[in-house]
Each structure stands twice: as structure tokens, then as C-alpha cells.
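ok so I'm stuck.
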Amino acid sequence: MKFSLISSIRWSILISGITFVLAAIFSVSSTAILSDVEWFLGMVVVLILILIGIFFDMIGLASAAAKETPFHAMAAEKVKGSKQGIQIIRNADRFSSISNDVIGDVTGVISGAAVILVVGKLMEDYNSLNYTILSVSFTSLVSALTVGGKAIGKSFAIHYAETIVLFIGKIFYLLEHKLHITVFKNKKKSNQGKRGTKGATR
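replied:
not stuck anymore, here's the structure
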């Protein structure tokens, strides 16, 4: 139990650090881009951020919903990405944490901040517009698109979990074989149940 607690604390610290770095990168990048573009192009950037959040929220849920058994059959047939899919499922807690909590939530926060910059740009072009009404309208629109998009993404994640995980597995396969980047090390399935059975037999 003590080891699990320490491991959990270490993971929390690591994920917090990653979140800080990604938030800074997204924030600086979006601010730099939006400061030099027209408001309608700024909205395109906001929509891209929303889509990124929806995508990662979807694959994070898919990793938790997917069943491991079909991937063993695919691995036996040497389907590319199937072994990586198994590791994604076995590391679903961490994978979903990075996808949903880090990238998904960070893009959500940054897209909200980016909307304010877009509204500011719009006010520069049309001084007669009411800032409060404009800000509330755009913020509500972004919130509606985010929530609605994630709702659709969750539906896809639940019904096509294995397909989505295999797709991500193929990307990890390419990273491993082309760039020699291993995202998840080989994590064996727990044999705790088997040990318990042997102990009971004795």
C-alpha cells in the first residue's frame, strides 16, 4: 500500500509538471498566433484547440473502455499496433490521465482564454459592438461546441473503443520502429489472482 501511495504521488508530481509545460506552450503559441491575425482566423485557431481537446478526450476514454482480449488475437496474427494497443489498455489509467486531464483540459482552458483575445480583436474592428454581449456569446458558443463535441466523442469511444485504441497503437508502432521512441514499456498482466489460487490449493 505504501509503495502504491508513493508511486501515485510521483505520478501526480510528474503529470503536474507536464501539465505546466504544455499549458505554457499552448498559451504562448496561441497568444503569439492570435496577436497577428484577424478575428475570424483567431476563431479557426480556437476551433482547432477544441477539436484537439475532443480528440484526446475520446482516445483517453477509449483506452479505459477497450477490451484486451481482441488485441491478443490480433497480435497472434502480427497486426501492426496490436501489441502497442495491449500496452495502452494496461496503462489506461496513465494514458487517460494524460489524454483527458492534461491535454483535454489544457486545450479547454486555453481555448477559453483565446476567445477573449478574439473578442478583443473583433472590438478593434467594430467599436460599436457591446463587449459584454460579444464576450458572453463567444464564450457560450465555445463551451457548447466543447461539451457537445466531447459528448459525441465519448459515444464513439465507447462503441468503437478497440478500433480507436488500435489506431493509436499503430501510431505508437511507427514511433517505436521509425523513431525508436517507446511510449509505454512492456507491462505484464498482474498474476495476483493466479498466486491466490495456488495459495488456496496448498
